[in-house]
Amino acid sequence: MPGGRVVATMVVARKAATSMVLFGFWLMAGLALGMILMAFLAIGTYQRGYEAGYVGRKFWRTELEARRKASAKAYDRGALAPSPRVEVSLATETPPRVAAAS
User: Domain spans of the chain?
Assistant: First the structure.
């Protein structure tokens, strides 16, 4: 019965081909859903980080301005020593030197 073996082999081959197609379909569907999910998660994370950074930047900027004003007032009163000035000479090729504090 060689014909029986051929039919059985064709049935097995057809089942294998069908299962391979189903495997490929579900693999592609899973990848597509995973990519969509990751895109939504990434967008949500970016939005939360941007909002947190925006709020933090506002507070940081306010504190920076307050520190600058306080420093300027203290410097004007003479409570702070001036920072060392950098002496730059355009006539020479030597690197700049830090002036001595007086």
Answer: 2-98
